[in-house]
Please model this.
Amino acid sequence: MELSVTDLAVGRGGVPVLAGLSFGLGAGRALVLRGPNGSGKTTLLRTVAGLQPPMAGMVRGAEDRVAYAAHADGLKAALSVAENLRFWAAVFGQRDIGPALRAFDLEDLAERRAGQLSAGQKRRLGLARLVVTGRPLWVLDEPTVSLDTASVALFADAVRRHMAAGGAALIATHIDLGLEAGVLDVTPYRARALEVAAADEAFL
Amino acid sequence: MRALFYRDLALALRAGGGFGLGLAFFLIVVVLVPFSVGPTSELLSRIAPGVLWLGALLACLLSLDRLLAVDFEDGALDLLATSPLPLEGVVAVKAAAHWVTTGLPLVLAAPVLGVLLNLAPGGYGVLVISLALGTPALSMIGAFGAALTVGIKRGGLLMSLLVLPLYVPTLIFGAEAARRAAQGLDPATPLLFLAGITGGVLALMPFAAGAVLRVNLR
Model:
């Protein structure tokens, strides 16, 4: 289990955001991405998750192994907590949703409609989805938004269990999760705006 | 795949899912036609197959703009794209669920509404067969249109403009089959054409829609 990113350049809408990025992530490890808003963390995570192609460079070891979680949780308000989880479990070929419910303290809410949950509870359900995917590489974009301190601890425990079971996690976050994780600041890899100007000249 | 199909059915049937919207629209269009063209039973019976087909087509179109847009907005489409399901399969399954919740009720309601339009007795069987053959193509072409416009705010109008021209062959042969049957002619040829169009659409469109969706998710 090894994610390796070599000389990666990613862009949004054809404009390069990050360039020259290389890192590796082995089994049982976590890597925290840091950087100011708009520095390209989300774009990088979407590229690693395979939602958009890299502008240059390679992402290896991510295909069909990523469980992706972004700002939107993909929950259906009309379905119950258990139904939402069961759906994602079935999509990923898994069955048991019990551990996921327990890990995020959702057992008492299992029959509640997802539309009636609070923002933090929705987030917990969105993160519980990661557990039912059974995928080894978690790619998480600001996973702790709207979580309280206790829930952040639940989340950190879940990530720790995932790492202990041989999984890996790539997390963009601003808060300290208390994980033994490497930190990658993406600020130095910001793509220079100069190249954009040069590319546009022909059209001006 | 099966889980996605059942989830879409459950979502359509629960509150706010919009089940019955197409059916109600179909009913209203067909009921309004005699008011607009006059209650001459001979005229109504002549235009009945065309009106029923046009009504079914527009009713089908009505719920299409939510087909992928809802999943795009709440992030589920991104998550499905990173799941083991191929996007082609996702679109095909969602089109199938759309057909079951929108197309199939239209097929079943059409003979009842045919009575309202004084459809000739010989036309009922073929009308139902032609709708049953044609509406899956409408759902699948619509899913392609929805994939093209996913991510565009208020993309429904644009989608209608893109999709309606693609509906023309289905409409021509479907309405023609129903019309021929109502006039006591042999409807086999347009029915075969209709089946061919639907077969081709079901075979090709999932791949086109999957490719388009992949580009739109970037």
Notes: The CA atoms of residues 103 and 158 of chain A lie 6 Å apart. The first helix of chain A runs from residue 41 to 48. Chain A is about 30% helix and 25% strand.
